[in-house]
Write a structure and sequence with these properties.
The complex is a heterodimer of chains A (184) and B (264).
Chain A lengths: L6 H11 L3 H12 L2 H17 L9 H23 L10 H5 L10 H4 L6 H9 L3 H12 L4 H8 L3 H21 L6
Helix pairs in contact in A: 2-3, 2-4, 2-8, 3-4, 4-9, 8-10, 9-10
Chain B lengths: L2 H12 L5 H13 L1 H19 L8 H10 L11 H17 L2 H15 L3 H18 L11 H7 L19 E10 L2 E10 L2 E9 L9 E5 L2 E8 L2 E7 L3 H18 L4
Antiparallel strand pairs in B: 1-2, 2-3, 3-6, 4-5, 5-6
Chain lengths: 184, 264
């Protein structure tokens, strides 16, 4: 444990881990929804990663850090939902993954035409997705991880990543098309 | 292939994650299913729109500084406590025995420069590096409890001062334990508090007799440091919480010490 003092290790860790700070911060912002908590989570992630750097054998650095960050964020959520009575489960009901809820009404021609949204609106739509779907969208579309890497970060099989992503995109698309429809 | 199967696989297709066999199957389905073909287009358009939008966020500069300070680059690492000072002295003098008069002269200049290093500055460095080590080495507390009545007796006989141990949980600064550390070559008590994710180390040591009481605040490597002397005891508080919160901590701690100091 006191190998933390090994200067070569710390240097290697900084070189490998610090370039991913923006990506980690982005993920934390979507998982925590509050800037101060996101910052705390990212810092905690780096401290933990340094402690475990000795045992790091791969995968790539980015998904490894993201897996740690995700655990930090989930632990923080669990701690909070213990404090406030209504256990606001962050994990999807396992049944939800199976229900083919993404069967939308048949696509009408104009539904294919995508509404144009500015960055802020898109960010808000993503932030509005329920947790496991928001997570998979951020990891895939924003952090550009492969399915295998997402499976590693989220700790689920690749098949689950695929079905979650399909549902997440269907939900995203529905929200995307609904956005801006009411006030007109 | 059914529409339901294709529904999942067409995402893998657009993401380039589908193997050859399944690609052929999905494409065969798409050729005969206009509804799925429409979906493929719609999802493709949405993906492109997201890729074109700037959805990545840059980490704020203060967060970058905080993290860089928490995992200090070896070169910029502040050399800290008495032990590491002694070691560096030893290697320093080890160099002497084989050195020439010239290098001895150079070394002597260095020695003066080191010795003349401003006292308070050096202690602030020690305090910050003791704080960093406590975070890094997984050795935050020797005695881990939020009960002040457990922490206080734990220090008995280990120090030449009885540190006031105050529980500030009600003020949102949670006492999480204590540990022995050393500052300026003297054994010091470290009381450990937590505020959200942040750790506050409060170092407590006897104030050297005959020295003037000092107080001060500064920022080092992104950490805020507060120092004050109260009734013959030196206190240093260090944390990465913001300056006003650390001031609040110091104020509440001092106030609690004075209101509790009547007995004991």
């Amino acid at each position: 444990m006191s190998a933390d003092g090994d200067p070569d290790k710390v240097r290697r860790f900084r070189d490998a881990a610090l370039p991913h700070l923006d990506d980690l911060y982005t993920l934390a912002r979507y998982l925590m929804r509050n800037q101060a908590d996101a910052e705390d989570a990212v810092q905690e992630c780096y401290l933990r990663a340094l402690r475990h750097f000795d045992s790091y054998r791969g995968p790539a650095m980015k998904p490894w850090l993201m897996a740690i960050l995700r655990n930090v964020c989930r632990a923080e959520y669990a701690r909070r939902s213990n404090q406030s009575a209504p256990a606001n489960s962050t994990e999807a009901d396992p049944e939800m993954d199976k229900t083919p809820m993404w069967q939308e009404p048949q696509a009408s021609p104009e539904a294919v035409l995508l509404r144009r949204h500015d960055d802020e609106t898109i960010r808000r739509i993503v932030a509005g997705l329920p947790q496991p779907f928001r997570e998979v969208i951020v990891l895939r579309e924003i952090n550009e991880l492969s399915y295998g890497e997402i499976a590693g970060v989220a700790g689920v099989p690749v098949g689950t990543v695929m079905s979650r992503l399909a549902r997440a995109r269907a939900m995203l698309r529905a929200a995307w098309n609904a956005e801006g429809e009411t006030p007109r | 292939m059914t529409c339901e199967e294709s529904e999942v696989l067409l995402h893998a297709l657009t993401d380039g994650e589908l193997d050859a066999v399944h690609t052929r199957d999905v494409e065969a389905h798409l050729a005969v299913c206009p509804a799925c073909t429409e979906k493929l287009k719609a999802f493709g358009a949405m993906r492109d729109a997201m890729a074109a939008a700037h959805l990545k966020e840059a980490a704020p500069a203060h967060l970058r500084r905080r993290i860089e300070a928490a995992i200090p680059a070896p070169a910029t690492r502040v050399s800290g406590l008495s032990k590491s000072w002694q070691t560096s002295w030893r290697t320093f003098f080890g160099g002497f025995s084989i050195g020439t008069a010239f290098s001895a002269a150079v070394a002597a200049t260095l020695l003066i420069a080191v010795v003349r290093d401003d006292h308070d500055q050096r202690i602030a460095s020690e305090v910050v590096s003791a704080h960093l080590r406590s975070l890094q080495a997984g050795h935050l507390t020797d005695v881990e409890t939020s009960d002040q009545h457990t922490v206080k007796p734990w220090f008995n006989g280990k120090l030449d001062v009885a540190p006031p141990v105050i529980d500030l949980t009600a003020e949102d600064f949670t006492l999480i334990g204590g540990r022995l550390d050393d500052i300026n070559g003297e054994t010091a008590a470290a009381l450990v508090y937590r505020r959200r994710h942040h750790v506050i180390n409060l170092f407590v040591a006897r104030h050297p007799a005959g020295e003037h009481a000092r107080a001060g605040s500064e920022t080092r490597h992104g950490f805020n440091v507060r120092h004050w002397t109260d009734e013959g005891i030196d206190f240093w508080a260090v944390s990465d919480i913001n300056a006003s919160e650390l001031d609040e901590f110091c104020k509440k701690f001092t106030a609690a010490v004075h209101s509790a100091s009547a007995p004991s």
